[in-house]
Amino acid sequence: MSNTAPKLEERAQTMGIWFANLSAYNSGRLVGKWIYPLNYDSFDEFAKAIKDGTRDTVDYADEIAAHDYDNCPDMGEYPDHEELYNLVHAIEDSYIDNEILIKYMSNQHDYSVDLVQEAEESYITTADSFKDFAYEYAEEDIQNIVNKDAVQFVFNNFDYDGYARDLEHSFTVLELDNYDVAIFRPY
């Protein structure tokens, strides 16, 4: 993770939604625009951008649909625009990586600001694999539980693979695009 925050212009282009004028779309014309919620300081500005972006010549759209999402939670064709705006800002403000948060919400089959908070409270770490995490977890438990004279014996004879397999049922483990995993404790 970089120590320097991305410039506002770069950050603002990270999560976008293609909003379309449904009336124009149904007439065979593509009228719409990519809108990036992070470019707007208030929901009212965001709503105005959607309205302006879906205007067909002089008429504003009666119906607006979200036809595509880019690095953004897919809240369907007819999302609540204010909820979407608030969610994108909550994701951006979180200390957890955007990809991890979006995968966590997708795994819960829900997209909400409350899930961002839930994810932050239950997030443990990322690891190369759950097995690597479990091995480290097991070694800490062994060090804390087993008599110091027996530690090496336990280390040599412990079924790490079985422990990792059993332990995985106690956590939420999400595979990431970079082949790592994100690990969450039960909420």
Describe the structure in your own words:
Helix 7 (130-145) crosses helix 9. A hairpin with a 5-residue loop joins strand 5 and strand 6. By secondary structure, the chain is of the alpha+beta class. The protein is elongated. Helices cover 46% and strands 16% of the residues. A 3-stranded antiparallel β-sheet has the order 2-1-3. The protein contains 9 helices and 6 strands.
SSE inventory with pairings:
Elements: H1 8-12, E1 16-21, H2 22-26, E2 32-35, H3 43-53, E3 64-70, H4 81-93, H5 98-108, H6 113-122, E4 123-127, H7 130-145, H8 151-157, H9 160-167, E5 172-175, E6 181-184
Antiparallel strand pairs: 1-2, 1-3, 4-6, 5-6
Q: Count of helices?
A: 9
Largest sheet, spatial ordering of strands: 2-1-3
Q: What is the SS-derived class?
A: alpha+beta
The SSE order reads HEHEHEHHHEHHHEE
Please state the average pLDDT score.
87
Helix content: 40-55%
Low-confidence stretches: 1-11
Percentage of β-strand residues: 15-25%
Radius of gyration: 23 Å
Termini separation (Å)? 26 Å
**Biggest sheet record:** 3 strands, antiparallel
What coarse outline follows from CA principal-axis ratios? elongated
Give the total of beta strands.
6
